[in-house]
């Protein structure tokens, strides 16, 4: 019997991208998809409620608790969720992150089966994709529109983690924390890593050299930019970790670091036939299709009001 798997995400106003993300993780074979939302204005929560009603996801409202960032609150709620606790493995990722698996057919069970021995957590390195010179988001699938990425792994070791939730008592957005006992950590190539960071507050797997953050076997495609307008409009939405800074300004350090369009890589396109079939299934449901269209229009209307030339200039570093 295959181990059961869950993917968890915290979202706000991601309606125009939601169906692709849900369909993608369904295609990868995840048993449970848990999405926690807060303060949605574009109908993301209504779309998720519809998807929950047809058995595709579990939707949890994630209201803010004081000044605590939504992702922190959301992960604590996810750890308490019965469906997540019933799963052997959990991946936490954002709406702009898509798991690439090079083993077998590219499904989640192929990654788990490729680990050479007992494993409690897998560090999956970010593979940042740039905006393909898109000033404005044209609509459509992210994995088709953004096909150019940086050429080498980031020496900073940015990653997310696939792990056994029942072996840990907590987690950050990047990795599990506070294991109940000794745990075995590997990278996506199956190489064992130092797991000391699971017992510290660090956001990254400290104690491991950058060579351990390998793209061999699997990587997490990170579409942090998508297009310049999408990126700048994150200033209007807010940050999941409640940071209030210039991170989402054009030409910010974050923008320059994760908007490298150095090589073309369409490896995820092997999932497109199954992905498109799933999307066609969703969009054949009139109410869900209408909600998606409304989310896209909500974004366009908001952008026309907010992203004036004057505001774009303010959100651009010189």
Provide the domain count. 1
Radius of gyration: 19 Å
Main sheet, how many strands, which sense, barrel?
Answer: 10 strands, mixed
Overall CATH architecture = Alpha-Beta Complex
Number of separate strands: 14
- Principal-axes geometry comes out as globular
Structural class assignment: alpha/beta
Stretches where pLDDT is under 50 for at least 5 consecutive residues are none
Strand content: 15-25%
Distance between the termini: 56 Å
**Could you please say which CATH topology applies here?**
Spore Coat Polysaccharide Biosynthesis Protein SpsA, Chain A
Can you give the helix content as a percent range?
25-40%
Helical stretch count? 11
Calculate the mean pLDDT score and round it. Answer: 93
Series of secondary-structure elements, N-terminal to C-terminal? EHEHEHHEEHEHEEEEEEEHHEHHH
- Name the CATH class: Alpha Beta
Quick structural overview:
The chain has eleven helices and 14 strands. With 318 residues, it is α/β, with parallel strands linked by helices. Strands 1, 2, 3, 4, 5, 6, 8, 11, 12 and 13 form a ten-stranded mixed β-sheet that branches. It has a two-stranded antiparallel ribbon with strand order 7-14.
